[in-house]
Design goal:
This protein is an alpha/beta fold. The protein is built from five helices and seven strands; from the N terminus they run βαβαβααβαβββ.
Length: about 190
């Protein structure tokens, strides 16, 4: 059965607010609404979302536009980066490179990539199992979405498999446990 994995688009970055509480920016909201109107997410039955604010915002916009119910699951959260909190963009990118490049190591106190991958794979498989015969839209984050996609493609964890920008999607088949598409960006308007 085909399912859709969607990552939240642009957020309001505020160093004074914990990362998991950052909301979507107006531009991120606009991109999500355009995606909902594009038809790509039509024909699905349920949205299963991370509990982080940016994912909840994305799920809410999709749910309102598509008239779908939403479930929230904390195990779909992004890799735990609370040890560092906000990092300036260049420093974040260097740390993310290390996160993907050393998947069995906790880089700067972040949840190790392999641990995050195992968590999100179990969460997605669990969601599919809890809802047999239902096509799911899973709303989450780029890092763990990339780790999930590596598992779906039986690829080693690597930054080259990361989403190309915030706000992307791919489809996967839960029966064959295979990604069916590459990363595709949400519309820009």
């Amino acid at each position: 059965m085909r399912h859709l994995y969607v990552t939240h688009p642009e957020v309001v970055v505020d160093a004074a607010v914990p990362i998991q509480h950052w909301p979507l920016s107006p531009y991120g909201r606009q991109r999500t609404a355009a995606f909902a109107a594009s038809g790509v997410a039509s024909g699905f039955d349920l949205i299963v979302s991370s509990t982080e604010t940016k994912a909840r915002d994305t799920a809410e916009i999709l749910a309102d536009a598509l008239s779908l119910p939403v479930e929230h699951h904390p195990e779909l959260a992004e890799n735990d980066r609370s040890a560092t909190g906000f990092l300036p963009p260049d420093e974040f990118e260097r740390t993310a490179d290390l996160f993907f490049g050393h998947p069995d190591t906790s880089v700067r106190g972040w949840e190790a990539a392999r641990t995050a991958q195992a968590r999100v794979v179990v969460a997605v498989r669990g969601a599919v199992t809890r809802h047999p015969g239902r096509r799911l839209i899973l709303v989450g984050h780029g890092g763990v979405g990339s780790l999930l996609r590596c598992d779906l493609l039986d690829l080693p964890i690597g930054r080259q498999h990361d989403q190309p920008r915030q706000g992307c999607w791919y489809t996967f088949d839960s029966e064959s446990w295979r990604a069916e598409s590459g990363w595709r960006a949400l519309p820009d308007d």
